[in-house]
Design brief:
This protein is mostly helical. The protein has a domain of 211 residues. The protein is 83% helix and 0% strand. It is built from 22 helices and no strands. Helix 3 runs parallel beside helix 12 and helix 12 runs parallel beside helix 16. The longest helix has 42 residues. The chain is globular and about 65 Å long. It starts with 5 loop residues before the first helix and ends with a helix.
Length: 538
């Protein structure tokens, strides 16, 4: 098992996540063709609720394990870091079982609350209850899987966790597509049966991924079980480590819970508010499906970049911070922000510009869905930046600031969601209100966190600011060139084949323009340093 530095680790883990998201996106084409809007909405409800419970049961401890393992490994306290993993594994397994029981038993209450008075949509409470209960079984496995990934990431080993992510996604997608096809086309069962199979696929995929990591660690014990003297480690008792783990993990649990709560706010407000405003139940359900599931699947290709950066950033930053290495803390923070924006800004602008053919490729032409997606996609930048900044402040033990900032952002979103839908309704676009609310409540806190990191960690953004200007200018030049091209070759795809051709042509031309400009202005060298210069010279 090979260890990676921050930039290498970010690329490895990010590529793995992007591949996972791409697989998760491709399967949508046959899946969406097999099910109706009823099934799509049912699927969205199940995953929205599951995301909240998953955050409660997994978000804190795996990241805490990654951070603690990195710290104790840096101090060469090998026995202690192994003890941390074993304790974390036991603790998270218990938590997973507890939240499985809670989610399973509370499913009818949740289903009733989601649907409210939206009876005319035809969605049955018992169907929503069933899919929520089925997907809750994933909580029995996913926590153990996530803490094992955190253990490996704490050693700066990014390869196996990336492979496990890909394996999990492949198995999940195979179960969904094959299961749905057999259920609907061969056995001719009710659609809810196909959706039950689809959500249960999360449990099966997680089981295969965990078994892979378990075998991988077992066959590489020499990498982790190094000889060490217990003399300096005796003070790290079980009680002390559990206390430390809880203190480290609780803020991350709150952070991820509040992040997921953005989706929960949408789940509880979009359908109800839009129907109250006079929109049909079809438009209300479609808006929710685009924001919660189908548009989100497209944006996650971009957001996965921040996930990869955070996975590599946390152990690297924790190691430097505990040693009070301000130079490398400053370097890592700036690299993380620059690397994030270097990829997310042009990708978001490109997907926005090609929203029609991209949507047609994956789902089929639908004017309203595309219009909703055009606003929603910009959350990919704001959410990614917000996530990275939150992880920086939390990893450097600024827990209070992290939680307060995120809590204010969440409260702001909860308070703004309904009013923004009412405001947008003045222009007959009430379905854009939820996306606008989220954008506002992520941009403002991100600006504050940038200021806080600058003051508290003495991070200098001078080079980052210069590189951001380069990124924005290159992205705008790319957009202008694509706009000019669209005069000659209009973007008007309404069929999947035409959408593939148009997306391919514009994506290749846009990528060549953007990366060509960034190569010429020295951005690659600035990000990757001397290693990039040596590789290019060879």
């Amino acid at each position: 098992m090979k260890k990676s530095n921050f930039i290498e680790g970010s690329f490895i883990y990010t590529l793995g996540i992007i591949l996972c998201k791409f697989i998760g996106l491709i399967y949508v084409i046959p899946f969406y063709a097999l099910i109706t809007n009823y099934g799509a909405t049912l699927y969205s409800f199940a995953y929205s609720i599951y995301a909240v419970f998953l955050s409660l049961s997994t978000s804190g401890i795996p990241i805490a394990i990654s951070k603690l393992v990195s710290e104790y490994n840096s101090l060469e306290y090998y026995n202690t870091k192994e003890k941390v993993y074993k304790l974390g594994f036991k603790l998270i397994t218990i938590i997973g079982v507890v939240f499985f029981v809670i989610m399973f038993l509370s499913a009818p209450i949740i289903a009733n609350f989601i649907l409210g008075n939206n009876i005319e949509s035809g969605i049955k409470v018992e169907d929503v209850t069933l899919v929520i209960r089925v997907i809750s079984t994933a909580l029995l496995i996913v926590p153990a899987l996530s803490v094992t990934k955190g253990y490996l990431q704490g050693h700066k080993i990014m390869g196996p966790p990336s492979v496990s992510n890909i394996l999990e996604q492949i198995i999940r997608v195979l179960v969904i597509i094959v299961g749905c096809y057999i259920s609907l086309k061969i056995m001719h069962t009710p659609e809810k049966t196909a959706i039950v199979i689809s959500v249960f696929a999360a449990t099966i995929g997680a089981l295969f991924a965990y078994l892979y990591l378990f075998i991988k660690i077992k066959h590489n014990k020499n990498v982790f079980n190094k000889d060490a003297s217990l003399k300096d480690e005796e003070r790290y008792t079980t009680k002390y480590l559990i206390k430390q783990m809880v203190l480290y993990s609780l803020p991350f649990i709150v952070i991820d819970l509040l992040k997921s709560s953005y989706n929960l706010v949408d789940t509880l407000t979009i359908v109800r508010t839009l129907t109250d405003l006079g929109y049909s139940s079809d438009i209300a359900n479609l808006t929710f499906s685009v924001i919660a599931t189908w548009g989100n699947k497209l944006s996650m290709i971009i957001i996965s970049i921040s996930m990869g950066i955070c996975a590599s950033l946390i152990p690297a930053l924790a190691g430097y911070y505990i040693k009070n290495d301000k130079k490398n803390v400053n370097k890592n923070v700036n690299q993380a922000i620059q690397l994030l924006l270097f990829i997310t800004v042009p990708m978001t602008i490109g997907i926005w510009f090609l929203s029609q053919p991209i949507w047609v490729i994956f789902y089929s032409y639908d004017y309203l869905s595309i219009e909703i997606f055009k606003v929603f996609i910009f959350q990919a930048i704001t959410f990614s930046l917000f996530s990275v900044l939150l992880n920086i402040t939390q990893t450097t033990n600024n827990t209070k600031t992290t939680i307060i900032t995120l809590f204010i952002s969440f409260i702001g979103n909860a308070l703004l969601n309904i009013p923004m839908m009412h405001l947008c309704h003045i222009w007959k676009i009430g379905y854009q209100g939820a996306s606008v609310s989220t954008l506002i409540t992520q941009i403002i806190p991100s600006i504050y966190l940038l200021y806080f990191i600058h003051k508290k960690l003495e991070v200098d953004y001078k080079d980052t600011f210069t590189n951001i200007v380069k990124i924005v200018v290159a992205s705008l030049i790319m957009l202008l060139c694509l706009k000019l091209l669209s005069i000659v070759y209009p973007i008007n795809a309404t069929t999947r084949f035409k959408g593939l051709i148009q997306t391919g042509v514009y994506a290749i031309i846009g990528s060549v323009i953007y990366f060509g400009i960034m190569f010429k202005n020295g951005m690659f060298k600035s990000l990757l340093g001397d290693k990039f210069k040596k590789k290019v010279s060879h």
